[in-house]
Amino acid sequence: MKPKVLVTRRLLPEALAYLQEHARVEGGKSRRGLTRENLKAKIRDKDGLLCLLVDQIDRDIMDSAPRLKIIANCAVGFDNIDLGEARKRGILVTNTPGVLTETTADLTWALILATARKIPQSDRFTRNKRFRGWELDLFLGKELTGKRLGIIGMGRIGMAVALRARTFRMEVVYFDPCRLTPQEEKTLKAAFVPLDNLLASSDIITIHASLHPGTYHLISAENLRLMKKDAILVNVARGPIVDEKALARALARRQLWGAGLDVYEKEPAIQPELLRLDNVVLLPHIGSATYETRLRMAMMAARNLIQGLKGGRPDHLVV
Ligand code: DGY
């Protein structure tokens, strides 16, 4: 008998077809997620769950899933899953590392450039037929060449961002509790500095850390005050790493020059003040959103799930 699998939201058809070959699949077609009550009802008789980063899989959900053997998260981050609870119950948890590194690094640079050169603001201005001809001081942005880039979180994505910084001949510093090897630092031309030093000295600060209790509100009001007045903060990691209210306040007071955000503290809600500000560029969590990457992620999550359900060790096991 094929195992029973629940897919919380729309999956790419190729990945759904793969799952259907190996399992009896429910869900995977609707853009709208399940309500918690629906999820609890539907997971009751399932052996496997394929979920997205927007699904909170906590103790309450696991209590409703007596047969559950594996949770395959279609994301590299897994802060939406209570790992402790899963471990206690012997439920495997998998993620999708590696396949979205370059895409997310590309988006980081798109966001750095969009923020530094006011691209969305200029586009809105032009569409609104306000372009009356070349002006010496129209949409003056920030130069990147020769500036200092501070990377918080030097994992795979942080390193890919550092490599791209060479094109701009930027000086790269980083902070991560796990220091790179001297060889890696040399290859990336990146120097380790303490966090407060990075915050106080960088022109562009970009966040690539994972979310856990130690990084929650790492960028607090106090840490925002350490940043240079003309600095830019970019976050493509997880929203709660930045105190969003404090950031909105700092941007409104021009305590820093600008920010580019792809992620938010209470997604999809956004601090209303941010929506009114013109010195912040806002994206809808599209860091890994290319067709190729999302297909790789969906296929990887589907394969992890089936490997676990067949009793093997999934390739990308978290716990
Ligand atoms: C992830 O996989 O964790 C990313 O946030 C998706 O873009």
Please give a structural write-up.
With 319 residues, the chain is of the alpha/beta class. 37% of the residues lie in helices and 15% in strands. The chain is built from 13 helices and 12 strands. The chain has a 7-stranded parallel beta sheet, with helices on both faces. It has a 5-stranded parallel beta sheet with strand order 2-1-3-4-5, sandwiched between helices. The two termini are 26 Å apart. It binds (2R)-2,3-dihydroxypropanoic acid (DGY). The site of (2R)-2,3-dihydroxypropanoic acid has 7 residues, from loops. (2R)-2,3-dihydroxypropanoic acid binds at residues 53, 75-77, 100, 287-288.
Topology, element by element:
Blueprint: E1 4-7, H1 13-22, E2 24-27, H2 36-43, E3 48-51, H3 59-63, E4 70-73, H4 83-89, E5 92-94, H5 101-116, H6 119-127, E6 148-152, H7 156-165, E7 171-175, H8 182-188, E8 190-192, H9 195-201, E9 204-207, H10 221-226, E10 232-235, H11 244-252, E11 258-261, H12 272-276, E12 280-282, H13 291-309
Helix pairs in contact: 1-13, 5-7
The site of (2R)-2,3-dihydroxypropanoic acid has 7 residues, from loops.
Name the helicity range. 25-40%
Give the SSE order as H and E letters. EHEHEHEHEHHEHEHEHEHEHEHEH
Poorly predicted parts:
none
Return the average pLDDT rounded to an integer.
98
The number of E-state strands comes to: 12
Main sheet record: 7 strands, parallel
Give the strand order of the largest sheet, numbering strands 1, 2, ... along the chain.
8-7-6-9-10-11-12
Bound molecules: (2R)-2,3-dihydroxypropanoic acid
Radius of gyration: 21 Å
Q: In one word, what is the shape? A: globular
Please report the distance between the alpha carbons of the first and last residues.
Answer: 26 Å
Proportion in β-strands: 5-15%
